Structures are given as structure tokens and as C-alpha cells.
Amino acid sequence: MKYYEMKETKIEAYVKSVGIFSKDAQLAIKEVGDGNLNLVFIIKEKDTDKSVVLKQALPYVRVVGESWPLSIDRTKFEANALEIQSRIVPSLVPKIYHRNDDLALIIMEDLSHLGLMRYEMIDMKKHPRFAEHISTFLADTLFYTSDLYMDSEEKKKMTARFTNTELCKITEDLIFTDPYYDAESNNINPKLKPYLEEVFWKKEELRLEATKLKYKFLTEAQSLIHGDLHTGSIFTSEEETKIFDPEFAFVGPSAFDVGKVIGNILINYISWSGKEVIQEKVDDYRSYLLNTINDYYNSFVEKFKVNWEKDGRATITKIEGYQSYYMENMFRDTLGFASTVMIRRVHGLAHNKDVDGIEDLEKRKEVQVQILELAEEIMMNRYKFNNIHEVTNLVKEKTW
Amino acid sequence: MKYYEMKETKIEAYVKSVGIFSKDAQLAIKEVGDGNLNLVFIIKEKDTDKSVVLKQALPYVRVVGESWPLSIDRTKFEANALEIQSRIVPSLVPKIYHRNDDLALIIMEDLSHLGLMRYEMIDMKKHPRFAEHISTFLADTLFYTSDLYMDSEEKKKMTARFTNTELCKITEDLIFTDPYYDAESNNINPKLKPYLEEVFWKKEELRLEATKLKYKFLTEAQSLIHGDLHTGSIFTSEEETKIFDPEFAFVGPSAFDVGKVIGNILINYISWSGKEVIQEKVDDYRSYLLNTINDYYNSFVEKFKVNWEKDGRATITKIEGYQSYYMENMFRDTLGFASTVMIRRVHGLAHNKDVDGIEDLEKRKEVQVQILELAEEIMMNRYKFNNIHEVTNLVKEKTW
To answer: In angstroms, rounded to a whole number, what is the distance separating the alpha carbons of residues B377 and B391?
Structure first.
């Protein structure tokens, strides 16, 4: 089947032809994509309220236009990753109803009853079960797709299947390279520019540490990772958590996913210093955020170890001392990746609304400098912290 | 074309049909394979003395028989690796004249005017240009197939192309796992068995270090490595060096190749303590061996750095401090891999004739214990040595 771009008129025929809806169903179709890359439609049957999401990749970067072409293969990686994740953690990812790799589309569960975690955090909403859910998602997906569990031959075939070159390249450039110099792709608050030029871009030691992590990203094939696990890839409510959009999935360093979640929560934590909100509320929410990080990371480690004890099939899992060495590396790398992610969201191409919602550019700049300074402190001390509490205590002591 | 096993009668028709020899050539065909896995024929034209080697993979492990099946895909990996290596270091690998992946065969340059390095070392032959050649081979193949030089997308595609699962699995088991416990696959000198049971297999710290290196082998996709670079994969003379048999090639930790060469030279070094040879000759040859290791490793580092300065296209190569960090890791890993290789050749499945040539099992055992002890010392101190001279000095001080 030849690729064509889905329009609302074509969608109705398509979803009926593949049996998602019956021929005489009355459908309401709405385009809701606000991401950078894809078309996203919600398709609802008027009588029954049954609804699904149809996501289609465009052969170019949507925010930029046809001048930045991008292969539609990414849908295949997303669907392949969702299939694996839904075998491992079925309750934490959207259900797939249909995929068509030629058309680069996936029809999946409609999760619009949930909120995007990033916006919910901007609204100071709490998600009491988030730490429990995300720790399960990460402990299970990262363990069961690693050499600790998988047969080495199956693991290598999975790695080859996820040769996701184009989207990896985006991460390599936008996260690990461009923020460390005056790259064209950067998106810089003009008030921040002097700080970058006079201070940040002169930090050679920090750049070296980011480079070490970039090389891990380039070469360490540990687990099938989501690859883009920021708070805009998570739907939440008080009860539910769903992790979606794994189009950046590939077999890479496990701690990249773990660190990205922490980095995004810390961005939200700092963002409050630039907003006019009653201090008591801020204190309460911030304390919730740090507790979430502690609970999340500790539970992740506990669950990962439980998986290891229960299902560690590889001989390396039986070797005295290897588990603590492994989890120690995981911790150091998690802090490193968290730091790189905080930095790229300040002045790289893609920002977080948590901070860009601060209209006053001077105030925004102050918040951005705080993020850069905290990120540096975490990166440069990542071999000194003994546990996640020491990291969150460091954050708590800041007087922003 | 369907796979069939080459017999001498079929070879003549085949090599003529693909134009390697003319139709009326008078050929002499001889099977010379002494490896564990393949058929190897030398085909010579009587009138002209023109000769070639035909290597064909069998669909099972030759030394064991059809009960241990092995995919003939390995010839494809070997030919693919040879093609890449011959673009990078054309003078150091055999020329390929013809490949047929369906028949799992390669027709290549006949190198029988050279000697197998392992046997030459057993005969105390010196190879004054070996250090120069092997350092070039490694500095060039490991640099130009890494993320330091290659575009990250091309590198990832190369990695996927070399998904050499079966042969990697052999290394994972036979080098990194089985020698550390009483595995069935081990091939144990009965006089050594008590030492293994009472001493060696109780070394938990050593086993932990070997496990860390195994995980690197499983997950670190740094460069296209030869994968089996022992002294039986190298042809030598006083003038020439040719590296062949890269059927274990895949994208893995660069230091694995570098360390394997050192480990094999050290095995030969120690083996003399169990042989009756005039001490003066032994001293002279041993001093040559340690000089070779020093020259080889130092030249390797120098040439790798020259490549880096000249052709380091990736942005990571421009980062202040990254080169010394990279070469530091290379050194630690090289020592670790050298150690694992020494150990596996003592009581793993495959041995070196350097040591197994010692007929007296008690004497052989003494040599084997010396190898195991030196390997352990190198492994456990690999973060303490400052340079390769400190390692070879340690060896020199031994009073074997």
C-alpha cells in the first residue's frame, strides 16, 4: 500500500474498512496533534461514545515543514516498542488496535480522559500513584529487555530490529551536543544569552561529562528504552498512568529513561521560583515533587532487584557483587542523564512549558540559570552522592 | 544457489566457472583446514604456480561433528568484515577474489608462504615488524569503524549488519563464563583440577571482574572488532603480517581485540618455564616478547591518537579532555580482556599449543597456574597500572 496523508475524509473509510467501526457508525473526527512530528486524530462513534486515536507519521518534521524530511519508519519503531511494552506492562501503555506500517499509522486506545503530566504539573496537580506506576514501568521494561533476562541471541536481534538511526541522531544532536555551544538549533531566551556566552559555554568540565554520557548513548546497548520519556510522554490522573509515544525507542543505556523523568520533575520544581503563587502552596507542591522522586527512584531500584532475583536468567545475574555494581552504575548514569535533560530544556531546541510559561523574560532567565546551575551540580557530583535522598536534599536546601 | 559441501572434485569446476582459473588450467587441490569450524583448500595451478585459498563454512562445528550445528552465515560476517578491513588496511589482510554467501565460501589470497604466528612463536621466531603492523591494524580498524569517525547513522547500520549472534554466544560462554566454574565445556588438565577446585573457582572477586567485562562484551558497541584476534589468526614472517579469519566480527568493545593479542603473547612468555631450552635463549626471547608488547601497545595508542587528530569527524572528538579519558578506558579494558583470554586458554575449551605442547602434565600444570596467577594480578590491578611498561615490568620480575 502506498503512503498517503490521512485527511478527515479518508479516515472514516479507513477505520471502517479495517473493522474498527461498523459500516454504518456515525463518527466524529477531530485532529488533536500538538506534537512536533505527527498527525493525531480522535475518532468517536456518536451513539456509543466508543473512541480511538489514530496517529500518523508525516514524512517531515511537522513544526518545521517539508524542508526537514523525516522517514516515516518511526511509526514502525513506535508500534514495535508498544507491542513489547504491552506484553511487559500492559496496564501502563495504550492498547494498540491496528497498525499499518505502509501508511505509518497506528490506531490505539483513546486516553483523552487523562491529562498530559506536564500540564497537570503546571496546574499543581498531584498524582499519588505516579511513583508506583513509573517505577514499575521502568523496572519491568528495562529489566526484561536487557541481557540480565533475555537470551543473548534474542537480545541482539531485538537490538538490530530497533536500528532507529534518525531519531537517535536527533537526541545525539539536540540533547548532547548543541546546548553546549552556540548552535543554530538552540532556542535561546535573549535575556539568557549573555550568561550562556560568559559562563555556561565556558564550562569545559561539564561539557566533558556530557560527552561521556553522549558516548554511552551512542554505544551502550543495554535495554529497549522508551527514548523520550519526558513529562509530555506521560498521561496521568490520580488513579492512572500511561506512557506513550515511544517512537524514539531503541536499545540504549537504561538510565536514560530513568534520568529523563527525574530531570523533568526537577524542571517543574525550579519553575515555581519564577511564578507568583502563594509560597505555602509552592512549598507543599515542591515537597510532593521531591517525595515523588525519592519514592520513584527507590521503588524502581527495589522492583528491578526483585525482577533480578526472580527472573535473572543470565549467568551474570548470579555472580556475587554484580547486582550492586550494576545498580551503582545505574544511579550514576541516571543523575548524569537527568542533568543533560535539564540543560537541553533550557536553551536547546525543545523547551518545557513549565518554564516558558513565565512571560517575563528576565524572570524566566533567573529560573533558567537556576536549572543550569542545579544540573551542573548534579552532573559534577554524580559519583559523590550516596543515594537519591542526598540529591533531593541538595535541591531542598536551595533557597530559590 | 543451494548450499552443498565442497569436495575436491567439485572445486575444480567451481573455481573455473567463476573465472578464478582458465578452463584448461591444471589444478592441484589440497585440503589444509586445521581449524575447528571450516573446510580450507589450497588450489594451485601447476604451470604458473598461481594459487588461491578457498574457505567454506560447514553447517556444524567441524571438531565436534553434526551434533553441534552452526549456521553457515558466519562466512557472510567474515567476508563483510574482510571487505571493510581491506578498505582500511589493505596490506594487512588477505585479498578476497570471490565470495558466494549461498555456498558460504570465500576465495582469497593464498598466504601459505607465511607462518602461523602461534607456531612461529613456539619455534622462538622473531617478527621485527609485527608491533608496527598489528598496531596499525588495530589503530586503523578500531578508529575508522567507531563513532569517533563514522556518521552515527552509518555506524548503527553497520552494527545491525554485524548481528553475529551465534559466534558472539560462543565467546560469551567459552571466554567469560565457563572457565569460572566447573563447566562441562572446559578442557582441564587433570593435574590442574585440584587447584581449580580449591583455589581458582573460589576467587569471587576475579569472577566479578570477568563479569563486568562480559557485560561490556554483551552491550558496548564501540567498533567493528575482529573478535578472535589470537596468535592463530595471524600469519607472520620477518617482513609481513596478515590478520585473517574475522568470522567472529561484530561491533563490540574495541579493547577486546587489543587485549587478546597481549594475552596470547603473555601465554607464550610463560610457557617457556615448562620447557627445556637454554636459559639464555629463553631470556632473550622473553625480552623480545615484552618489548613487542610495549612497542605494540604504545604505537597503537600513538596511531589511534593521530587518526583522532586527523580524522576525528564526530563532535565528541573535539571536546577537551575526552581523548585522554577514552584512551584511559581503552587501557583498563585492554588489560581486563587480556586477562580473561589468558584464563580461558588454560582450562577452557580451546587451548594454546604453546602450553599444551608441554607433555609432562605436572610441568604443564605449573605453567598453567603461573598463567592464572598472572592473569589475576593483571585483572585485579588494572586500574592501578599507569602504563603498559608497568605491566611488562611486573611480568619481568616474575622468577618463573
So the answer is: 10
> What is the Cα–Cα distance from A370 to A337, expressed in whole angstroms?
18
Spatial CA neighbour of B328 closest among B378, B383, B379: B383
Report the alpha-carbon distance of residue B196 to residue B373 in Å, rounded.
12
- Residues in chain A within 8 Å Cβ distance of B211: 316, 319, 322
Q: Which residues pair with B38 in a beta bridge?
A: B57
Rounded to a whole number of angstroms, the distance between the first and last alpha carbons of chain A is 56
C-alpha cell at A62: 511537522
Element (H or E) spanning B263, and its range?
A: helix B255-271
Q: Are B366 and B275 in contact (CB under 8 A)?
A: no
User: Which residues on chain B are in Cβ contact (under 8 Å) with A165?
Assistant: 152-153, 156-157
Residues of chain A with pLDDT under 70: 35
pLDDT score recorded for residue B272: 97
Which DSSP letter does residue B95 get?
A: P
pLDDT score at B115: 97
Write out the three cell numbers for A159. 537490538
Please state the three-class secondary structure of A108-131 as a single string: EECCCCCEEHHHHHHCCCCCCCHH
**Distance between CA atoms of residues A69 and A77, nearest Å:** 17
For an interface test with B, which of A142, A151, A152 has the most B Cβ atoms less than 10 Å from its Cβ?
A152
Q: In one letter, which amino acid is A146?
A: S
Model pTM score: 0.96
* Strand stretches in chain B, DSSP E: 27-31, 38-45, 51-57, 60-61, 65-69, 96-100, 105-109, 115-116, 223-225, 234-236, 241-243, 250-252
A362 burial (CB, 10 Å; 0-12 / 13-18 / 19+) is: exposed
| pLDDT tens digits for range B254-273 | 999 999 999 999 999 999 99
